[in-house]
Amino acid sequence: MIYLDYQATTPLAPEARAAMLPWLDKFGNPHSPHRIGREAGAAIEVATAQVASALGDSEARGHTIFTSGATEAANWALQGAVDGPRHKIVTIATEHACVLDTAAALAAKGVEVALVPVLPNGVADLDAAAAAIDDKTALVAAMLVNNEIGVIQPIAALAEMAHEAGALFFCDAVQGFGRVDLPLDVCDLVAVTAHKIHGPKGIGALWLREGLDWPVLIHGGGQQQGLRSGTLSPMLCAGFGTAAALAQQRWDQDRLHIKILSDLADNLFEAWTLNGDAIRRYPGNRNLRRDGVDSSRLIADVRDVAFSAGSACASGSGRASHVLRALGLTETEARASIRLGFGRYTTQEELREAAALINEAAARQLEWA
Q: Among the options 98, 187, 237, 313, which is catalytic?
C-alpha cells in the first residue's frame, strides 16, 4: 500500500526503532537510584535534551515535560491557564479537536471562550483576533500548521496580541514540529508529539517557558519536577528523542524532498482545487477538492492508497470537516475534498502511482454522476 496520510501519523524511523529496542530488555525504573535505574534515567535526560533542541531550546529557556501525547499536553495547557484569576480562552475556529473540545468543556464550567474566524484562505482573521483578546484573556491558543489544510498561522502576531493583553500564548506545534520554523521565543507553552515526526505513538511533550508557575497535572511520586508524576518509559522517550534529533539533522534534506514532491503533486493533481492558502502552507499537506466527487467513496474505491478526508480524530463522526466549513466551503464541497500527506519516506514513483489511481477513480465517479 502507498501511504499518503502523513498528517495522521508517520512511519517509524529506523533510527528511532533502533534506539527503542534495547529498552525492551533494559527494565530498570528510570527514577530508581541504582545503576540500571540511573542508566534508564540518563536515557530520558538525553531524550529530553534532544526534544528541547529540536524545538529550538538548546539553552534551556524552558522545561520539556513528557506526556502521553499532544492531546494531553493541549488539555493541560488550556486547563492550567484558567487556574488563575483570568477565565477567558481565545482560539481559532480551525483548531484541532483537542483544543476545541477542551475549550468547550471549560466553557461548560463557566470559562469564556472566543473563537476567532479564519479568512477564506484558512489564515486567522487578525482583526477579529485583536477584538477578541482583552484583559480578561488568560490564554490564546493557535496551531502552527493546520492538520487538515496545512496552512501556517501567524503565530508571532497572535502571540504579540496575547502578551500585550497580559495573556499567555499556547502553540499546538504538532504538525509543524520538525517541518517548519517554530518561533519558540514568542511562545509560553508548546505541544508536540513523537508520532508525527517518525517517532513512536504514546508519547508527546508540553514545553513550558521558564518562570511559569503551572498547576500540577498528576500527583504522585513527584517525577518531572513534580508537575506530572508517574514512571516514564525509557523506550518511548528514547524513540521520541532520536526522532527529534533526526528531524533536526535532516532539516534541509527533508525540506528539499518535500519541495520536490510538492512540485510534482501540483502537476499530478492539476484538475483539483487546493483548499487553503497556496503560499502560506506546509507543502507536504495537500487538501484538494473536485466538484462531483464523493471523498468517502473515493477512499473506499482506492484501496491501495492510504489517504483521508480530513483529521483522523474526526473521521468517524460522519460530519463534514469543521476546518473546511470554516473556510466557507459548502457541505457538498467539503465532502468532495481529500487530504494527501507525504513525507520523508514517500518516493516520487509512489506519488505518481497514487495520483493515477486516485484520478482514475475520481473520473469514474464523474462519468457515472
A: 313
